Amino acid sequence: MAGFAIIVSVVLLSMFSALVSASEPPSQCQSGSYYGDCNADFGINGVTPSYVVAETSVTSTLVWSSNNHAMSIQYNPDAYDFYEHCLFGLNNCNYVQAGYVVNGQGCYSFVVQTYFDGVNGPFILYNYTSSWYCETFNAASSGVHVYIQENVGSNQFISSVQFTVQYFVGRTMVYSNTLTVNLLSSDSDYWYKSNQVIVGTSGEYANFAAGAGAFAYNSNVALYVNTISQTFTSETSNMIYGCMVQEGTSLYAQTFGQTEC
User: Fold this and answer.
1) 54: which residues sit within 8 A by CB, 6+ positions away?
2) Residues 205-213: what's their mean pLDDT?
3) Fewer CB within 10 Å: N-end or C-end of the chain?
4) pLDDT digits (tens, 9 = 90+) for 212-232
5) What is the pLDDT of residue 3?
6) Which residues contact 106 (CB under 8 A, 6 or more apart)?
7) How many domains, in total, are found in the chain?
8) How far apart are CA 143 and CA 124, in angstroms?
9) pTM to 2 decimals?
10) Is the pLDDT of residue 197 over 90?
């Protein structure tokens, strides 16, 4: 994200803060490059959804290295879709980003950030960071399922972001945690076509040595694969993503950590 930052300090301040670069351009992704911060969009072809869920299922434990020892699963809006609306005064010129962060100890946290991107460049408008959840399992291990659901209100703005983490041993769910972050209209905007990526935090590169799984995208309306997203995130990685399947349905999926699309 533009961006996630982990702060280690003896001072009793938030351990998670936003690092904003006012001049940061959107990531420039090349067509057909499904890796790092570049993944295809899931879009709605002009139909307003009630919700859009991005699910991550880890089937092989994620192992990575980064300077701050953290990684994130990010749900990011498409920059060009956002700018098209903002240029013609069709929105508040805000965009919402959501993420699931895992630190080097295997603990996890949830983040929702809203940015205003007007004449003077982006600045953070709203920042929510949950506490760290340190459980008996590694939050990036095989058997972890993460759901990030953006809900859309009657004004067509994102009204809340709901996070759910589940942990399975075999086919048995042994852990579940859900948290919902409500957004005021002034701190929100429309749902834009988006993508999901697995990258570093705080502008960092995450190098994955192992790990694989699948993404699934679900909504009350049909979802379609769009072009490779031009994202706002300042983080990237060597994670690779497979092609999407079941396009044009309300549920479709893709792999990660295996063969690039």
Assistant:
1) 42, 75, 147, 148, 149, 194, 196, 215, 216, 217
2) 97
3) C
4) 999 999 999 998 887 776 777
5) 52
6) 134, 137, 138, 139, 140, 141
7) 1
8) 34
9) 0.88
10) yes
Contact 82, 192 (CB under 8 A): yes
Distance in angstroms (rounded) separating the CA atoms of residues 124 and 50: 25
| Residue 3 within a domain | no
Q: Which amino acid is at 52?
A: V
CATH number for position 141: 2.60.120
DSSP secondary structure letters along 24-92: PPPP-PPTT--BTTB-EEEE-TTPPPSEEEEEEEEEEEEEEE-TTS-EEEEEEE-HHHHHHHHHTT-S-
Structure tokens at 115: 């940015």
The single-letter code of the amino acid at 222 is A
Contacts of 169 (CB under 8 A, 6+ apart): 143
Asked if the structure places residue 162 within a domain, the reply is yes
Per the structure, the complete domain to which residue 246 belongs is given by 26-256
Residue 17 has which token pair?
Answer: 């803060």
Only one residue has tokens 């706002």, namely: 232
Domain annotation covers residue 191: yes
> Is the link from the previous residue into 211 a cis peptide, with omega within 30 of 0?
no
As a whole number of angstroms, the longest Cα–Cα distance in the chain is: 52
Q: Find the mean pLDDT for residues 99-112.
A: 98
Q: Is residue 125 part of a domain?
A: yes
